[in-house]
Amino acid sequence: MTQHSSLKAGGSRGKQRRNVLKRQERLKILKDEGKWEKENGVYGLPKVKPEK
Asked: What's 22's DSSP letter?
């Protein structure tokens, strides 16, 4: 049985972008935009689109 082409390690494809950010990454973006402060906490954060 052969491996599906999407699962093979390909050097030409490069690094794929993640479509979900980690909490620390979201906090950094929100802090840079002025939409989050340390006193607000880390729960119930607004959605943030990943940078392209």
From this structure: -
Secondary structure class of 8 (helix, strand, coil): coil
pTM, 2 dp: 0.61
- Is residue 38 included in any domain, yes or no? yes
11 — pLDDT class (breaks 50, 70, 90): low
Long-range CB contacts for residues 20-26, cutoff 8 Å, separation at least 24: 20/50, 21/48, 21/50
Max Cα-Cα span within the chain = 55
The residue range of the domain holding 34 is 17-43
Instruction: Tell whether 24 is covered by a domain.
Output: yes
Q: Is residue 39 part of a domain?
A: yes
